[in-house]
Design brief:
Number of helices: 3
Radius of gyration: 48 Å
Largest sheet: 7 strands, antiparallel
Strand content: 15-25%
Helix content: 55-70%
Order of helices and strands: HEEHEEEEEH
Length: about 220
Amino acid sequence: MKKIPILFFLTFCTISASAQVFTGMSEIDKSKKEGVYTFVNTQEKYAKASWKAYLSKFGKVIEGKNGSYASSDIKISSISDNPLIVVSKVSEENKKVKLFISIATASDEFIQTGHAKLSEASTWIEDFIKIVDLEEGVRVEENKLTELISAQAKNTKQAERLLRELDSNQRQINNLEERLKEAKIEKEKILTNQVQNKLDQKSKEDEIAVQKTAVDAAKQKIK
């Protein structure tokens, strides 16, 4: 008796270990539907676009509200030779993107646990998941490329800024060197003037001494 619940759980919960496809029920456009579901490793907006594109390969798709899609004449040869009614929904639950699909093979007959076409439906969903994974891989690489291009653009701007700073610094050095030359010339002028000033002072001292002698001589004549 204990083996029955375990077998039922395994059949009900995991159809495909690789794709993790489950059976269950979900509400689509206020109507409870039986079917299968899986979780998609991408953002909700990407999952919606990819799922619609995937469905469109098999027939006309009518997009509803809140991520729902309806197809009344889908032809999936791997599942059935007859047209199928497929109602699906892409939504986010607990930070995971969920894809629920209700596939009607006949009136009131849906692919779920125990259905003869459950394995084929699971494989069909797996094919979609592979596509999503590949698309997500492209997005990851594109994001890396964008980040590298952005980093390179920053490096280029920094290089241009450093070049401007270096040019400005060189102009400052040139200005300082020019001012230094002018200062050295000015210093030479000052030193020359200083030497001349000392000579002038000595000359005046000599003239003063001579003049003092002349004054003393003039005073002696008065006595």
